[in-house]
Write a structure and sequence with these properties.
heterotrimer, A mainly alpha, B alpha+beta, C alpha/beta, B: alpha+beta, 3 helices, globular, C: alpha/beta, 11 helices, 49% helix, transit peptide (chain A), Ubiq_biosynth_COQ9 (chain A), Ubiquinone biosynthesis protein (chain A)
Chain lengths: 304, 92, 290
């Protein structure tokens, strides 16, 4: 699931501006100790980039997850990469199964370790496996976000009606579709948001939201890569976040008030855009005020 | 959570035989109360329990010399891993 | 890998080694610290070391590591992430240090989580098995447990056994830890494969061990400390210089972090990682059984 979206992104049908890539580098050192890992476990990362992201030396990783070779990497790189992808896939598959099963317990137990352990029990794994997840509760929330993104992507691919809609309608429709996925979890969504807001989790949640916003804009027909790119993503990100938060306190039937709110926000944003002068103004203000720090932030995040 | 000592001993012994297996054949053990040991019927070896601690180090095991066990014959031992079930069938 | 299967086959054939004169697997020399000894001797010599240090084991640990060993064990237990109702095996943990910490951790978790009680924990009891090849160490541990009130509910079980040939069923343990024990075994691969055998799918293997320091100046200081200071402390406090000389040398003979990690992966574990503490003086290796 992660890989299909990753391939779509890197597959070339679109291009990105600047330095936003999908290589997510894990920090080498923890606070008090140095850490080494034979694998990287990132959402939406291209399998090949994982090898680049592994620090230290390049000779050792392939053999570690492969139970048949005890000596190291004198064998061809391709071979060992394939083998290690296979066995790496195995425990990542199990993690994915675990997270998927845990989602069914989230309503009762919250985004917590208890939900993860209940999930482990469901899939027949020892609850100890939860200890091997990095940032346990965050892993659950991020998995959910990735799943939702995948469903959105599938919907974009299959829904023909999107193409005939105007950009603003398309955006409204897609954001509505995406937020509806969170509707069943709305009572515990604040908890998920607070988990995403923790400093250690912010890079991943930021990246996931950036990808979400990008998908939506792309589906709405935007292929631009100029300075407006930042402005547009920022604006859409703002619309999405405010609607998401509005939804938390909305008690109307089927979240009708939320969709009204959403439509109003989208309309505002597009009205603004109609005036070229104001669009340029916005773009400049955003890029100067936000873009620099945005770029710096993104640079920091993706350099890791 | 039994407090009476005799029952505790018995319970402890049953508890031991429930989850411990023979270190060599990995087959279940049974408790022998008179000798205060754990018996591995699969390979006819007994392991002592000292001070409430079962001693399941392979070299501490004592081969049992019982009448209907084939354990005394050396060539049988080599087959024991392969055919525990057969041995049990033959000896019973 | 081949090495492992060869020893297994030998083990089967030479199995009648239960009598008083054990015949052996194969007699290639192995290391007792920097000395060359025969394999049959190694287990006995290591046994002698631990018999003699058992009583003052904890004091010596405190002195040698300046009390840091407590932090390292805490880190090990927090990485393990214990949960109520788990079945855990602590190997070579005779005096019970790690086992007690796990019980403490579980009790803390229980108190925190009571409102959201996880169902399985109510159905099954926590069981920590402490396995050690040395009965003296186990006796010391058992005594400490009684003094401190651990295990009164039957959650601690003391078993004397060999890490290379465990007396537990397949797929029965949620967790396996071995703290400062694996460098003393004769066949590391057998210990690792036994660990893999007894763990349930999803179970984790964690090993805390003194390891190799590679930072240049720190390494020299560490060597100086190890070879000059520690045996002397051993002599003064425990009256046993030789044993501590062995302990220090055995650290150097143990494979470095990466090699050990590859051995763990060879035993069938996935997601093999290690974390260096204090620049490599100590390393915690972990693996996942899927």
């Amino acid at each position: 699931m992660f890989r299909t979206a990753a391939n779509r992104f890197l597959g070339g049908a679109r291009h990105y501006n600047g330095n936003i890539g999908l290589r997510f580098r894990r920090p080498l050192t923890l606070i008090t100790s140095s850490r080494y890992s034979t694998t990287e476990n990132q959402p939406f990362s291209n399998p090949h980039s994982i090898h680049d992201a592994i620090p230290v030396s390049t000779t050792e990783n392939p053999s570690f997850n492969d139970s048949t070779s005890s000596t190291s990497s004198s064998s061809s790189d391709d071979d060992s990469r394939r083998q290690s992808s296979k066995s790496r896939a195995k425990y990542e598959d199990e993690h994915a199964r675990l997270l998927h099963a845990s989602l069914t317990h989230v309503m009762k137990l919250g985004w917590t370790e208890a939900a993860l352990m209940a999930g482990a029990n469901d899939v027949g794994l020892s609850p100890s496996i939860v200890g091997s997840l990095s940032r346990k509760e965050a892993a659950l929330v991020e998995f959910f976000m990735d799943e939702c993104l995948q469903r959105l992507v599938d919907r974009i691919d299959t829904d023909e009606t999107l193409k005939i809609l105007s950009p603003s309608d398309c955006i409204s429709k897609l954001i509505k579709f995406r937020l509806e996925m969170q509707a069943p979890y709305i009572s515990i969504w604040p908890e998920a948001l607070s988990i995403q807001a923790q400093p250690v989790n912010v890079p991943t949640s930021f990246k996931q939201r950036a990808m979400l916003v990008d998908e939506i804009w792309h589906a709405a027909g935007d292929k631009a890569s100029d300075i407006d790119w930042y402005a547009k993503r920022t604006v859409l990100g703002g619309i999405y976040s405010t609607t998401e938060i509005y939804m938390l306190t909305d008690s109307s039937a089927d979240f009708q008030d939320t969709w009204t709110f959403l439509d109003a926000r989208v309309k505002d944003a597009f009205d603004l855009k109609k005036t070229i002068q104001e669009a340029r103004y916005l773009a400049e203000a955003v890029s100067v005020g936000l873009g620099n720090s945005f770029q710096r932030f993104v640079g920091k995040v993706y350099r890791r | 959570m039994v407090k009476v000592s005799k029952e505790v001993m018995q319970k402890a012994a049953t508890l031991l035989s429930d989850f411990l297996v023979c270190p060599l054949s990995k087959q279940p053990l049974r408790v022998c109360e008179e000798s205060n040991s754990l018996i591995s019927d699969a390979i006819a070896v007994s392991f002592p329990i000292k001070n409430g601690i079962p001693c399941l180090v392979p070299r501490d095991g004592k081969i049992l010399e019982e009448e209907d066990e084939d354990a005394s014959k050396p060539d049988n031992d080599a087959n024991l891993y392969a055919g525990n079930e057969d041995d049990k069938g033959r000896s019973s | 890998m081949a090495f492992g299967t060869v020893t297994k086959r030998f083990g089967n054939k030479l199995f009648p080694a239960l009598s008083s004169t054990p015949r052996l697997l194969h007699s290639h020399a192995t290391s007792f610290g920097f000395k060359h000894v025969n394999e049959e001797e190694k287990a006995r010599m290591v046994g002698d070391v631990f018999t003699s240090v058992a009583a003052s084991y904890d004091t010596m640990n405190d002195l040698m590591s300046a009390g840091l060993h407590r932090l390292w064990k805490e880190r090990l237990v927090s990485m393990l992430n214990p949960f109520p109702g788990m079945k855990h095996l602590d190997v070579a943990g005779g005096t019970g240090d790690v086992a007690f910490r796990i019980l403490d951790n579980i009790n803390r978790v229980k108190q925190r989580r009571l409102p959201n009680a996880f169902k399985v924990s109510l159905e099954s009891e926590t069981q920590i098995y402490v396995c050690d090849i040395n009965p003296n160490m186990l006796n010391v541990g058992k005594q400490r447990a009684t003094e401190k009130g651990y295990g009164e509910d039957g959650s601690l079980v003391w078993v004397e056994g060999n890490a290379e040939s465990l007396s537990f069923q397949n797929d029965s343990m949620d967790g396996y830890t071995i703290a400062f024990g694996i460098r003393n075994v004769t066949h590391i691969e057998k210990v690792l494969s036994e660990a893999h055998r007894v763990l349930k799918p999803g179970g984790r293997f964690l090993c805390l061990e003194l390891s190799h320091v590679s930072l240049p100046i720190f390494k020299e200081l560490y060597d100086l400390y190890s070879f000059s200071v520690i045996p002397r402390i051993g002599e003064m406090v425990a009256g046993d210089r030789e044993s501590y000389q062995y302990l220090v040398e055995s650290i150097r003979r143990f494979p470095p972090q990466e090699k050990f990690a590859s051995m763990i992966a060879d035993a069938g574990f996935q997601k093999v990682e290690y974390e260096n503490l204090v620049g490599g003086v100590v390393a915690i290796h972990s693996g996942l059984k899927i």
